[in-house]
Amino acid sequence: MAGMEDLIDELDRSYRETQERLSDPAVYNDHREAAGVGRKLKELEAPYKPAQEWRTTRDDLAAAADDGELRELIPDLEQRLAAVEEELKLALVQADPADQKDVIVEVRQGVGGDEAALWAGDLYRMLARYAERKSYKTEVLSSSPSEGGGFKDVTFAVKGDGAYSVFKWEGGTHRVQRVPQTESQGRIHTSTATVAVMPEAEEVEIEIDPNDLKIDVYRSTGPGGQSVNTTDSAVRITHLPTGLVVSMQDEKSQLQNKAKAMRVLRARLYDEERRKQREEQEATRRSQIGSGERAEKIRTYNFAESRVTDHRIKLTQHRLDAILDGELDDFTEALVSEDRRQALEA
Question: What's the predicted TM-score (pTM) here?
Answer without folding.
Answer: 0.68
